[in-house]
Design goal:
This protein is an alpha+beta fold. The chain has a single domain, classed as Double Stranded RNA Binding Domain, CATH 3.30.160. The chain has five helices and three strands. It has helices at 3-12, 26-30, 49-58, 79-98, 111-129, and strands at residues 14-18, 34-40, 68-73. The protein has a three-stranded antiparallel β-sheet, with helices on one face.
Length: 136
């Protein structure tokens, strides 16, 4: 992902803060260090329509019904670290989803692999034949 696109996405992000769960005593009960980063894919101007379609397909399980991607982070005690971590997760997620895989080149199976496959089939066939009724 190019830095220019990432900068546009960073401008479109919406942050929500809440109290983190888990142990921590008084500190965790008073500070809102958990971060929910929301990015509206449908209204984003940072990505093209083809990229949006690809992201919709790849991130279908991560998007809510309104087309918003939500990433939560409450790993660290500090809000700033959680913001950095959630942005890093978002960038990794978008980079991997936008990556176009190379098309597979069809190749012929090697002679040895064909021979090995047929030998395996023959052994399995012989095993099944040996299960027949016993004639006295």
């Amino acid at each position: 992902m190019s830095p220019a696109i990432w900068e546009k996405i960073l401008d479109e992000l919406e942050y929500r803060y809440s109290r983190s769960s888990g142990p921590g005593g008084q500190h965790v009960n008073r500070t809102e260090s958990k971060v929910d980063v929301r990015w509206d894919l449908e209204s984003s101007a940072a990505v093209t329509d083809t990229q949006k379609a690809r992201l919709r397909h790849k991130l279908a399980t991560r998007l809510n019904k309104d087309g918003i991607l939500i990433i939560s982070c409450d790993e660290y005690r500090y809000r700033a670290r959680n913001i950095e971590e959630s942005q890093s997760r978002l960038k990794d997620l978008l980079t991997s989803a936008l990556k176009i895989p190379k098309p597979r080149k069809k190749t012929k199976p090697t002679k040895s692999s064909v021979k090995k496959r047929l030998e395996g089939k023959k052994q399995r066939s012989d095993l099944k034949k040996s299960r027949g009724k016993i004639k006295y």
